[in-house]
Design goal:
Layout (H helix, E strand, L loop, with lengths): L1 H27 L6 H12 L5 H10 L6 H13 L1 H45 L5 H51 L9 H14 L17 H8 L1 H5 L1
Helix pairs in contact: 1-2, 2-4, 5-6
């Protein structure tokens, strides 16, 4: 619990410091203080969205005014659809991995069926073999098919080990996408959508007579007093 608290405290401090860099930039370039514009310049400072920082740097070099249209274009290009694109890419990779695994299973199933037929023929013809050479030939056939079947199973095992690693990687990417979609870019805290989703989940599992729940909401509207008394770092938190 203590480690989690320290980690959360560190994350809030980092977000607050980043925000203190963002505000002067937005003021300098006469950018309206909207949540969308905050998010753009927050990611510009942290440089954690591919292409965003480079794109804004080019605009700054050309002294392009950050009009409402320009700001909206930046947000749509780099933020609005980013999580959706990542989620869609992960979905496609998962579908591809499952398709490859299914194909491998079908191929191995066909080889197993062939091997079963070979053993069936061996069982039928072994009793009618008249010479040692006939039995030797039958055994060679069975041994060869057994070797092929063994190689097929080893390939299948290796394929599934590789697919398992791919699925673990995709799970991590999906978790990252889910985290980005559920947290506020400025503070790192859960956003409003996550709050309502959690509230709906609690409401669905609760019973007013057995396990009721309540929601406590605190509204602090004395930001200036807090900032003047404790400093802007505490106020940002």
């Amino acid at each position: 619990m203590l480690q989690t608290s320290i980690k959360n405290e560190s994350g809030v401090n980092q977000s607050a410091e980043t925000l203190r860099l963002v505000l002067p930039l937005m003021t300098r370039h006469k950018i309206p203080a909207t949540p969308e514009n905050y998010a753009i310049w927050f990611h510009y400072v942290t440089n954690d969205r591919p292409g965003l920082t480079e794109y804004i740097d080019r605009l700054l070099e050309r002294k392009t005014p950050f009009t409402e249209e320009v700001n909206e274009h930046i947000h749509q290009q780099f933020l609005s659809e980013c999580d959706l694109r990542q989620a869609e890419q992960v979905r496609k990779e998962i579908a591809s991995a499952l398709a490859e695994a299914t194909t491998a299973l079908r191929h191995t199933g066909s080889e197993a069926d062939h091997y079963r037929k070979v053993l069936g023929r061996f069982d039928k013809t072994c009793g009618t073999a008249e010479t040692v050479d006939d039995i030797y030939s039958l055994l060679n056939t069975v041994l060869e098919e057994t070797h092929n079947m063994q190689e097929s199973m080893e390939r299948l095992q290796q394929d599934f080990i590789a697919k398992s690693k791919d699925m673990d990687r995709l799970k991590q990417e999906l978790d990252q996408v889910r985290k980005q979609a559920s947290t506020d870019a400025l503070t790192g805290l859960y956003n409003r959508t996550t709050f309502f989703d959690s509230l709906e989940a609690v409401d669905a599992e609760s019973d007013p007579f057995i396990n009721p729940y309540c929601v406590v909401m605190i509204d602090i509207d004395h930001f200036k007093r807090v900032n003047d008394t404790f400093g802007h770092l505490v106020g940002d938190k």
